[in-house]
């Protein structure tokens, strides 16, 4: 599955069409209401697509990390 298809699929989750924050948050993480993981979620999917590791304390200093989380806040 290419990245554009993955993003379209992630945005089609019902939680993004809801005014309920809980439904939106679980959709953003790539889960359904029954907490079954739907791959990829917009949050974790981008982390996986970019690569790298979260193990380093300086990972959050990466500009791509900042842009990604700023975009999630925008959503």
Q: Into which percent range does the helicity of residues fall?
A: 40-55%
In round numbers, the mean pLDDT is 70
N-to-C SSE string, H for helix and E for strand: HHHH
Helix-and-strand structural type? mainly alpha
Q: Domains counted in the coordinates: how many?
A: 1
- Count every helix, treating DSSP H or I runs of 4 or more residues as helices: 4
Radius of gyration: 13 Å
Compute the separation of the termini in Å: 23 Å
Taken as a percent bin, the fraction of beta residues is: under 5%
Shape: globular
Main sheet properties: none
Number of strands: 0
* Low-pLDDT stretches: none
Protein name: Tyrosinase copper-binding domain-containing protein
InterPro entries: Di-copper_centre_dom_sf (IPR008922), Tyrosinase_Cu-bd (IPR002227)
Domain Tyrosinase copper-binding: 13-75
Organism: Tilletia indica
